Amino acid sequence: MAARKTTTRLALLVQLPIPPVGLTPPRGNVPLAAGYLKAYAQRCCGTDVQIEILPQEIADRYGDAALVAEILGREPWLVGFSCYLWNVERTLWVARQLKQQRAETLIVLGGPEITPENTWVLQSGAADYAVVGEGEATFARLLHALGSRRVSPDAIPGAVPLASRGAALSDFGLGQPNPVEPLDEVPSPYLDGVLAPDGEGTIYLETLRGCRFRCKYCYYPKSFRRLRMFSQSRLLETLRWANTADVKEIVLLDPTLNGRRDFDALVDVLAHGNSAQRFSYSAELRAELLEPRQAEKLAAAGVSEVEIGLQTVDPAAQQLASRRTDPEEFARGANALGSAGIRRRVDLIVGLPGDGVESVRRGIEFLARRKLYEEVQVFNLSVLPGTAFRRNARRLGLVYQDRPPYAVLQTPTLSLEQMAALVEEAEAAFGTCFDPLPAAAELVSLADTGRCEPTAKSSTPRADLCSSGFSSGSVAQVIRMSLDGPGADKPWALLPPPQRWANSLLLWLQAADFDAARHTAAAVLDYVLCQAPHTTLQVVLEPQGDYQQVSPRCLSLLLETLYRTISYLDRYYSVQPGRLRGAKRLVVVAPEAARKDRRWRQAAGQYAELVFRRHGTL
Questions:
Q1: How far apart are CA 501 and CA 596, in angstroms?
Q2: Which of 4, 280, 311, 473 could bridge to 304 as Cys pair (CB 3.0-4.6 Å)?
Q3: Among the ranges given (62-76, 287-301, 434-448), the one the predictor scored with the smallest mean pLDDT
């Protein structure tokens, strides 16, 4: 961490990742928004504020309390968080901890989750200000106002004082600022050296802001009222840099790459900037708008993968969603992409207003029969804040989760059970499993072979978990403890300090009699989730005596304890078919003899996944 002048205030920008589902690190947590904020503000604020971005590796791998300790250790004057549906609850938890431990630290929230509908975010008491809409100019003005004290920060359009400053929700009436014009005035965080390619050689690139379409399930239109484009010269400059920066993939963030009138000219720019074919592109586009010659041009430019949304084949559902798609035109475009050698990832949404069992089934059958894909994603509608569907949810009869991911739970024509059954039908039709969790045997094997980070021995309160011993393919930390040995009366005291926990924990418990030790085990889990409510927690029980002492009442108590705390992944998996899944899971490692004990196996299998060990191996 670079030293800074004692008179310079530090503004620290933080973006937390999509929670890991197993032992592998999160992917794609590129802090592009923070990069834009820093690059723009550095040109406006001079040297009186030093702006840093919390390194991606720390944001991805540190556990809840470890993040708080790391942030406080940097002594920031202000912390700005990018809030998305997958991280906003964890962000608020971290922000509250910061406020509790250092009340003078200013907290600023921004991102898609900052909308008037999200009163639970705005009135959480965790932050001082929220930035609405495009944040570059607003954040720079806010930094200046808060630092100079000559301008009232409460009068900056787009900067909303929150409840912790005595503000009311009506202050959203201040409105959004005018967007930066021309768009090239927003510096590139890559060209300015603020961001580098991630560990996989990937960068994220906007060619424009805005979308000509107004799909009612999408919150993109709420932030961008019209199309504003980066210039061709700016794009070519970025692509020249990418050719020298060991970039392997460029993810184009345009919501619809071929939704602009100069699409052919844009593809020419992409091709010219990648004439040496040093990297590939991936993008989203509308297959039904694509001509075969354009698919060939995309492939020649280096586009290797596209995401294309069929969403629904039902005309009534399409009309309600304001997304008209002729299935035959979609098939023509998808076939052109396939013929050009471009990998196709196709989306279908379950739970759109107007869709019923038969119409969703027709969409599944249409895709499966026509083979228009290399990968299919079928998922429940999210009723996102800031969308037309959210504003009209009551009129449309949409019942949905009140916290992220805001999954639809019921429509006038579909129950939750029917939606889960349709997802199962889709899995069978496409020969896949959507969002699978790693197998329990894989978790146990990784822990056994030492491919996860072992419990750290250091007593340093801010041990650097992320750079001392983590394997490149694992984000998990294994904590092994016996419930029988010394300290069993206060077993949580045997755990490493929460400030040294990783974002994914594998807690391996051993006991001679788990039934007798069930309340002790439950107390350990309760403590862990109190200190790290948003962790991905794998709990492995290994009986040291009679495996039958891993009783149903023991497992029931532990499972109940695990799900007293609900996080994003818990809600995400709760609407999917099959057994209870989420951020927490329970695994029992039993001797091979237990495999033949059908009665115990059936009883225990209601609550936990079972792994059988034969002569020390799985």
A1: 38
A2: 280
A3: 434-448
Closest CA relative to residue 166, chosen from 220, 130, 128, 202 = 128
pLDDT of res. 23:
77
Specify the pLDDT at position 183: 95
pLDDT at res. 473: 46
Q: CB within 8 A of 167, min separation 6: which ones?
A: 154, 160, 161
Residue partners of 541: CB distance under 8 A and separation at least 6: 509, 511, 514, 521, 550, 558, 586, 587, 588, 589, 608
d(CA 539, CA 561): 12
| Predicted local confidence at residue 153, as pLDDT | 82
Residue 12, classified by CB atoms within 10 Å of its CB into exposed (0-12), middle (13-18) or buried (19+), is buried
At residue 204, what are phi and psi to the nearest 5 degrees? -110, 135
Q: What is the pLDDT of residues 481-540, one digit of tens each?
A: 999 977 777 888 889 999 999 999 999 999 999 999 999 999 999 999 999 999 999 999
The order of strands in the sheet holding 280-285 is 202-205, 249-252, 280-285, 303-311, 343-350, 375-380
For residue 438, count CB atoms less than 10 angstroms from its CB and return exposed for 0-12, middle for 13-18, buried for 19 or more: middle
Euclidean distance between CA atoms 308 and 306, whole angstroms: 6
Q: What is the mean pLDDT of the chain?
A: 90
Torsion of CA 364, 369, 372, 374, to 10 degrees: 80
593 by DSSP, 3-state: which?
helix
Taking the alpha carbons of 136, 137, 141, 144 in that order, is the dihedral positive or negative?
Answer: positive
- pLDDT, tens digit, for every residue of 576-612? 887 788 999 999 999 999 999 999 999 999 999 999 9
Phi, psi torsion values for 397, nearest 5 degrees: 75, 30
CB atoms within 10 A of CB 210: 19
Phi/psi of residue 387, each to 5°?
A: -100, 160
> Residue 464 CA to chain centroid, in angstroms?
23
Task: Answer yes or no: are the C-beta atoms of 517 and 551 closer than 8 Å.
Answer: no
CB 307 within 8 A of CB 347: yes
Residue 122: pLDDT over 70? yes
For residue 405, give the amino acid letter.
P
Written in H, E and C, the secondary structure of 290-335 is CCHHHHHHHHHHCEEEEEEEEECCCHHHHHHHCCCCCHHHHHHHHH
| Model confidence at 201: pLDDT above 70 | yes
Provide, rounded to the nearest whole percent, the portion of the chain with pLDDT above 90: 77
Neighbours of 115 (CB within 10 A): 22
Q: What is the DSSP letter of 567?
A: -
Give the pLDDT of residue 443: 85
Residue of 283, 274, 284, 287 whose CA lies nearest to 333: 287
pLDDT on residue 163: 62
With beta carbons less than 8 A apart as the criterion, state whether 274 and 281 touch: yes
Count Cβ atoms within 10 A of the Cβ of residue 407 and give its class: 0-12 exposed, 13-18 middle, 19 or more buried.
Answer: buried
Do the beta carbons of residue 348 and residue 376 sit within 8 Å? yes
Give the residue among 421, 323, 336, 431 at the shortest CA–CA distance from 376: 431
Angstrom CA distances, 171 to 86, 167, 384, stand at 26, 7, 22
Q: Give the N- to C-terminal CA distance of the chain in Å, as an integer.
A: 43
Please identify which residue in the block is written with the tokens 């492995």: 540
Please confirm whether the linkage preceding 405 is cis (ω < 30° from 0).
yes
For position 578, what pLDDT does the model report? 78
Residue 119 vs residue 270, higher pLDDT = 270
